[in-house]
From TrEMBL, chain B:
It is an enzyme of class 2 (transferase). The lineage of its organism: Bacteria, Pseudomonadati, Pseudomonadota, Alphaproteobacteria, Hyphomicrobiales. It comes from Sinorhizobium medicae (strain WSM419) (Ensifer medicae). This is histidine kinase. CDD domains: HisKA. GO terms for molecular function: ATP binding; phosphorelay sensor kinase activity. InterPro entries: HATPase_C_sf, HATPase_dom, His_kinase_dom, HisK_dim/P_dom, HisK_dim/P_sf, Sig_transdc_His_kin-like_C. It comes from the Bacteria.
Length: 123, 624
């Protein structure tokens, strides 16, 4: 069995948050690719190289939830870690039930994200 | 003077008159019958010339009363016999002939004789002048009338002068007086007066030393009067002529004496008042005239008549009382005072009452206005405080409604800060940490901290409570930008695209910044809520500012929501109007109250392409 790729995609429309998450993952040895919107991620030709995606729920344009549904409809089985600044229990329960790796509330501890990424990548 | 003037051959005349009286009686009785159906004729006979005020007053009063009583239906004639200057028999006879001829065709029905001399004259020449006339007289006493032995059909209004009463008045005013000086002229009438005084005052001057100044020239009278002891009493009777034969109007003579006198001067005539006399007991000439007029009216009417007494009066000159320091309170009761200086109240009471009333009214009005102003200010202050409290409640409600999006907004920098901090920590654990990267991370942490701080500042502004309006001048565009930042997360969450169209120039307005921001947030949150049913691809919130009439700025906030029913466009600003299930219905009414507080106007409309647009206009703080 081929080991899953170690590269992580970060889809976050807040530039500061996007940069800091990428830095954190890099500092823990993960390669990252950042996208400012769901549309930007979908337009990327090589989505297969990502082992997981750190996905903000509330994106301008297509939301993180919509992107996830789009990805689930494809053969591409990417692990998803949601990050959000909003406290929406219903949405969280729905996401967890649907199989997301983690649902993190900003600001979240580094351990939570790194742990979730490790789980996503099957480490 | 009216009192008396004895025509020398009086006894003869009287005898003749008595005879004449007997002859006249039947004539008089028929007279009343004859004057029926025509205007009666009345002749007023004055003893002297027209300059003498006493007789003129009496005659004029009688004339006026007659005209009044007959309503003008009387023929009045006046004749001045001038017997003072022409006492000679030849003149008297000439006057009698003249009058007899003059009135030949118009015989008087009634003759009013003023004074003793005129009465004697008409009785003597009655047959020649007015053979059928009734004769009434005035101006002398009953005692004198008795001496004259007047015919039985001649009646009069007796003037009884009582010089003793004049002295009594003087003694009341000057109880400490020790000497009495009596002055009289050289004319027969004057001498007659002196004789009367000697008789009447003999018993009345008890305790006083009496001195008579008589048979002197006017200058001597003046000189003597000027040298009497202070505190004395001077009684001036009449001076029709002095020792030198110089004629006077008595009041003029008295005026000269009183002007130099060293003591108060009194006299028995009302005409002396105003010419230096303190006062006296008198029969006024007006009273004489009125009384004799009543007799004449009765005679014209054919009514039975009888002699009457003219009432006596005390008269006084207030200026002379003041001059000599005599107490007004010592005046006999009923004294008629002339020249009394009225008190301010007496003189101007209508004006004073008017002014006081006007001032009182004015004071009441001013007090009322001040109270009203105070109440109004209090009410305005109260109203302003209530508005400020309402605005604050509204701010709190807005902050509550936006709390989720504010929390989201704040979570972004906080999340970034935490990730950056933990990244830096991880880097620093390395043996060779990438210091450049750590520095970049620290810089980003600082920026995110500033970003979080800005959000908190905006939140603080949103929750700021005012106890009074904080007037500031600011650019309306800045407030719009600030509001958009606050709404950003909320709009984003609800998939609303926010845009702003602002002119390049500044739009300075003068108001409380927080209040205007609240108005904008109210309108914008309403707009966002109104678009909840719209397609997510068609939710647009547009802020647009523009100049209006060069002195105002208008802000429009439009949405692509469901719009407002046309019949409710005006009522949306009413308190408690709401279409939201959890709305208070106060947001728009508070917005209107705020805008009107700053001299503006707010209204709502529907956009032609769908959705609503709210506009408010405010005056620019400065032009250009």
């Amino acid at each position: 069995m081929e080991s899953p790729p170690r590269e992580v995609a970060v889809v976050e429309d807040d530039p500061s948050m996007r940069k800091s998450v990428a830095r954190l993952l890099n500092a823990h040895g993960f390669a990252t690719e950042v996208y400012a919107s769901a549309e930007a991620f979908l337009s990327c030709a090589s989505q297969n190289r990502f082992g997981c995606i750190v996905l903000d729920i509330h994106l301008s344009g297509m939301s993180g939830i919509e992107l996830w549904h789009r990805l689930k409809d494809t053969d591409f089985r990417i692990k998803v870690i949601f990050i959000t600044a909003l406290d929406d229990g219903v949405l969280e329960a729905e996401a967890m039930k649907a199989g997301c790796v983690a649902y993190l509330h900003k600001p979240f501890p580094a351990d939570a994200l790194i742990g979730a990424v490790n789980r996503a990548l099957g480490a | 003077m009216v009192r008396a003037c004895r025509v020398p051959p009086r006894q003869t005349v009287i005898g003749f008159l008595c005879l004449l009286f007997v002859l006249i009686i039947p004539t008089v009785e028929t007279c009343s019958a004859e004057i029926i159906g025509r205007v009666p004729r009345v002749l007023i006979l004055y003893p002297y010339d027209e300059r003498l005020p006493a007789t003129t007053f009496a005659g004029e009063t009688a004339r006026a009363r007659l005209l009044e009583s007959t309503e003008g239906l009387v023929d009045l004639f006046s004749e001045f016999l001038d017997l003072s200057r022409f006492p000679e028999k030849v003149h008297i006879d000439r006057m009698a002939r003249y009058l007899g001829e003059k009135y030949q065709e118009r015989r008087p029905d009634v003759v009013i004789a003023i004074g003793e001399e005129a009465t004697s004259f008409i009785i003597k020449y009655r047959n020649a002048i007015a053979p059928e006339a009734k004769i009434v007289f005035s101006g002398f006493s009953g005692a004198d009338a008795a001496k004259m032995k007047l015919p039985d059909d001649v009646f009069g209004a007796f003037s009884d002068y009582d010089i003793a009463k004049t002295l009594a008045m003087a003694r009341r005013l000057q109880p400490d007086a020790r000497e009495l000086f009596i002055i009289g002229g050289s004319a027969p009438f004057d001498r007659s007066w002196i004789a009367t005084a000697r008789k009447d005052l003999a018993g009345a001057a008890g305790g006083l030393k009496l001195t008579y100044f008589e048979d002197l020239t006017i200058d001597e009278f003046v000189d003597r009067a000027s040298r009497v002891p202070a505190g004395s009493i001077i009684l001036v009777l009449t001076i029709l002529s002095d020792r030198s034969g110089r004629n006077f109007i008595p009041r003029d003579a008295l005026e000269r004496i009183a002007g130099k006198a060293n003591a108060p001067v009194y006299g028995p005539y009302a005409t002396y008042i105003g010419h230096g006399a303190v006062g006296g007991n008198t029969v006024t000439f007006e009273s004489m005239g009125a009384a004799v007029a009543e007799l004449a009216v009765a005679a014209i009417a054919g009514k039975p008549i009888a002699s009457v007494k003219v009432p006596q009066t005390y008269v006084a000159d207030a200026r002379q009382l003041k001059r000599w320091g005599l107490p007004e309170s010592a005046l006999p009761s009923g004294t008629v005072q002339s020249f009394k200086e009225k008190s301010l109240w007496e003189q101007y009471w209508p004006a004073i009452v008017g002014i006081v009333a006007a001032l009182a009214l004015q004071a009441v009005i001013i007090t009322g206005l001040l109270v009203e102003r105070h109440r109004r200010r209090g009410a305005e202050q109260e109203s302003r405080l209530r508005l400020l409290e309402l605005v604050h409640l509204n701010q709190s409600a807005t902050a509550g409604a936006l709390s989720a999006s504010i929390a989201h907004e704040l979570s972004q920098p906080l999340g970034a800060i935490r990730s950056n901090v933990e990244t830096a920590q991880a880097l620093l654990w390395n043996m060779n940490p990438n210091i450049d990267l750590v520095q970049q991370i620290l810089a980003d942490i600082r920026d995110d901290d500033q970003r979080a701080s800005d959000i908190i500042v905006r939140l603080r502004g949103l929750l700021k409570k005012r106890s009074e309006i904080d007037w500031q001048e600011f650019d309306l565009n800045d407030v719009i930008s600030s509001a958009i930042q606050i709404l950003h997360a909320e709009a984003e969450q609800k998939r609303v695209v926010v845009s702003s169209k602002q002119p390049a120039r500044k739009l300075p307005v003068r108001a409380d910044k927080v209040h205007l921001q609240q108005v904008i947030l109210n309108l914008a949150t309403n707009a966002i809520d109104a678009m909840v049913d719209a397609a997510t691809t068609h939710r647009e919130l547009v802020f647009q500012t523009a100049l209006m009439e060069e002195s105002k700025v208008v802000l429009s906030i439009s949405d692509t929501g469901r719009g407002i029913p046309r019949d409710q466009l005006d009522s949306v600003f009413n308190a408690f109007y709401t279409t939201k299930p959890a709305g208070t219905g106060l947001g728009l009414s508070i917005a209107r109250a705020i805008i009107e507080t700053y001299g503006g106007k707010i209204w709502a409309d529907n956009r032609a392409e769908g959705g609503a647009v709210f506009r408010f206009v405010l005056p620019l703080a400065q032009h250009g």
